[in-house]
Design brief:
Elements lengths: L2 H17 L3 E9 L3 E9 L2 E9 L3 H6 L3 H17 L6 E9 L2 E5 L5
Parallel strand pairs: 3-4
Antiparallel strand pairs: 1-2, 2-3, 4-5
Length: 110
């Protein structure tokens, strides 16, 4: 997927989260040597670290969330929390964007 398509999917995801009562805290947080957190949002005191995936179809997008990707995301989240000196409740989420359809998968695990 091209960077511009990824940016569009992330923008749609942010708009969706805001419409659902989330506050977007940060986008594209880069953790050195670990990876990137696409969207960091919060709602009801819980931080949501969101991985955005976009593709031509749902199956392709969801299959791009691999155990390796989730492991890197978790390490990036740990780095973020340490670097910001935060001790907060959090979950890892996925947002799947296919055309104009958005599916929010809350609290994904390995």
């Amino acid at each position: 997927m091209s960077r511009s398509k990824g940016d569009i999917a992330e923008q749609k995801s942010c708009e969706y989260l805001i419409s659902q009562g989330f506050t977007v805290i940060e986008r594209n947080f880069y953790a050195k040597k670990l990876g990137e957190i696409d969207i960091i949002a919060s709602k009801n005191g819980i931080y949501h670290f969101c991985e955005v995936k976009s593709a031509q179809d749902y199956e392709t997008a969801i299959l791009n969330i691999t155990p390796t990707k989730l492991s890197k995301l978790k390490r990036s989240v740990d780095y973020y929390l340490q670097s910001k000196k935060l001790n907060v409740a959090f979950v890892l989420d996925a947002i799947i964007v296919v055309d104009n359809q958005i599916e929010f998968l809350e609290n994904i695990t390995l």
